[in-house]
Specification:
- The structure is a single chain.
- With 202 residues, the protein is of the alpha+beta class.
- Helix content is 28%, strand content 28%.
- It has 5 helices and 8 strands; from the N terminus they run βαββαβαββααββ.
- Strands 1, 2, 3, 4, 5, 6, 7 and 8 form an 8-stranded antiparallel beta sheet that branches.
């Protein structure tokens, strides 16, 4: 059963979301300042979860930062800014993003459109359809819906790896004290750093 649903973003809204994330990171990395949302598109006043991924395009193309939340009481515009800054400023992917990396880092924004709690994730989870989040107390982890598709994972691999990201045992999703949330989403990502945007809907 769905817990939350928001209006879908148009392509222009999605492009604006990626631009907002990049502007927030640029201002924070270069000037140490937090961007103020100001006037926003109508869709940005919705309240929904948001995830941000920063992907290096040079060398091995490793993940340079990721942050976000599957559910939020804040407006999408504010959540994008906070998640983008967190993705760039935390060391979860090895080190903080530096200003020199901005021109070779591709930005991706995932807007959560529907959240689905499940007591039977092995049955309900569909690779290519759902994003995934797990939580136990203060430990939590999530993975984009694109990740298992890109890596050819099965539903079980997807569940195991998301648990590992949360710092839990791979099969923790089978335990009653672990919350598993599936989510539907729209993903807007740069084809190349600061380049054109492609949209993926899950």
């Amino acid at each position: 059963m769905s817990e939350a649903q928001t209006a879908l973003f148009s392509y222009d809204d999605g492009r604006g979301a990626v631009d907002l994330a990049r502007e927030a990171v640029d201002l924070f990395v270069n000037n140490g300042q937090r961007k103020q949302p100001g006037s926003m598109r109508d869709a940005f006043y919705n309240r929904a979860g948001v995830f941000i991924r920063l992907q290096a395009t040079q060398g091995r193309g490793r993940l340079r930062g990721c942050a976000g939340t599957v559910q939020s009481t804040e407006r999408v515009g504010h959540t994008i800014i906070e998640a983008a800054i967190q993705a760039a400023s935390t060391d979860s992917c090895g080190s903080e993003l530096e200003a020199a990396e901005l021109s070779s880092t591709a930005f991706s924004v995932c807007i959560v459109t529907d959240v689905i709690p499940t007591d039977d994730p092995a049955t309900d989870l569909e690779v290519g359809t759902h994003g995934l989040a797990v939580q136990k107390g203060r430990q939590s982890g999530w993975l984009y819906p694109t990740v298992p598709v890109e890596n050819g994972w099965s539903e079980f691999e997807y569940l195991d790896r998301t648990c590992r990201k949360a710092g839990l045992s791979p099969t923790a999703w089978e335990k009653d004290d672990v919350d598993v949330l599936l989510f539907r989403s729209q993903v807007f990502e740069e084809r190349t750093p600061n380049g054109s945007i492609k949209e993926l809907t899950f």
